Amino acid sequence: MHAESLKNMQRFYDDYVAPHLGAPDDNLRIVDIGSMDENGSYREIFSGPAFDYVGVDLVAGKGVDLVAEDPYAYPVPDDDADIVVSGQMLEHCEFFWKAFEEMVRIAKPGAFIVLIVPSHGPIHRYPVDCYRFLPDSMTALAKYAGCDLIESWHDTESEWGDLVGVFRTTAPTKDQLASEQAVQLGGRNYVSYITDFLEARGSNAHLEIGTFHGQSLAPLTCTTLAIDPEFQLRKPVMGKKQAAFLFQTTSDAFFEAHDPCHFLQSPITSAFLDGMHLFEALLRDLFHTERYCTPGGVIFLHDCLPLSVEMTVREHADVPRDGPYPEWWTGDVWKLVPILRKYRPDLEMTFLDCPPTGLLMLTRLNPQDRTLEDNYDKIVEEFMDLELDEDGLAAHLASCPLRSSEELLEDNP
């Protein structure tokens, strides 16, 4: 930390923070990335009772409240910080754009992110020294991470030529706020729930279909096998896993060529199926997966509890771009509920109140059962033209009594 850096952070505070303070209940959460106190800290600027200051760094030390094991995955929840600050850190970060994307993740909608980085200066490894930044880098970072650059200035008189960027995450639109308020499920987020459920259950061989960005895969700790035709991972997915196998292919092609137990070194103990949003594809994923499961295993199906008729269309292009659930798409996988009731009543279905569109948990699995596979063509023909109207959706949801995800987790299954 150097004096000019503190001066530039003070300028941000004076211009953007101080004018809006004063309410008795002000409580702004500040998260400092790279917070080790080396000759000073921004903490002294945000030292008043209005601030809850949290320092994050890769090693323990003065000014560090949370230690991150991964430089691109901070131990901070989504949408947590009112202000994220980081100074004299990104030049030491091999993949600085990934670090900035993580800062955006932990920032609330409408939150500030403040970066202070050098534009010149001698090499100073800590433990590496990779970059110097020019003014256009701030615009590029905002464009990359999908946030707004509010202001940027270049302190050419400072020793390091400090470049400062003041960003703001995009505030939710009226439609987004309406959709959040309209969600009635109210339980644990499905990613958080599956993670904690599998940890409590002691799952050691997990299969996932439809990984895409990796948000549901990254927090798991057990050995995993993930299938997606086009991975677009936005964060490291290994975490504390001993092994993870990624197959960039369709699930049909995978099961035609591979036995998942060969890679997992065990029958599947848990699975999460979140593929193409078409009921016939999910039906195939289900009977292919169950074949390799242990009878005591569990399979989670996503999106079986749609919140509107509009999100159940079979083509993603037909999803409305406005209304209470803009661009939400579950497809017609809700049909698995009546299909399983008719063709596999032996399976136990538990409907969990996990937003945004529920989880269907299947237990009492039978790896030897071929009913769904043997009747596949018949089932597809029978259910293909079935559609929901408002009354049909109400009847469907009424037939799926919700169980509290929190209570089930406390039962330690």
Q: Can you tell me about this structure?
A:
The chain has 413 residues and is α/β, with parallel strands linked by helices. It has two domains: 3-171, Vaccinia Virus protein VP39 (Rossmann fold); 176-410, Rossmann fold, CATH 3.40.50.150. The protein has 13 helices and 15 strands. It has helices at 3-17, 96-106, 136-145, 174-182, 190-201, 251-257, 260-264, 279-290, 336-343, 371-374, 376-383, 390-398, 405-410; strands at residues 28-33, 51-57, 66-67, 81-87, 107-117, 148-154, 163-168, 205-209, 223-227, 244-247, 268-273, 293-302, 348-352, 359-363, 402-403. Strands 10-9-8-11-12-14-13-15 form an eight-stranded mixed β-sheet, with helices on both faces. The chain has a seven-stranded mixed β-sheet with strand order 3-2-1-4-5-7-6, sandwiched between helices. Strand 11 (268-273), helix 8 and strand 12 (293-302) form a beta-alpha-beta unit. It is elongated. Residues 174-183 have low confidence and may be disordered.
Class inferred from helices and paired strands? alpha/beta
By DSSP, the count of extended strands is 15
What is the number of domains? Answer: 2
Number of helices: 13
**Fourth-level CATH superfamily of the largest domain:** Vaccinia Virus protein VP39
Residue share in helix: 25-40%
Sum this structure up briefly.
This protein is of the alpha/beta class and 413 residues long.
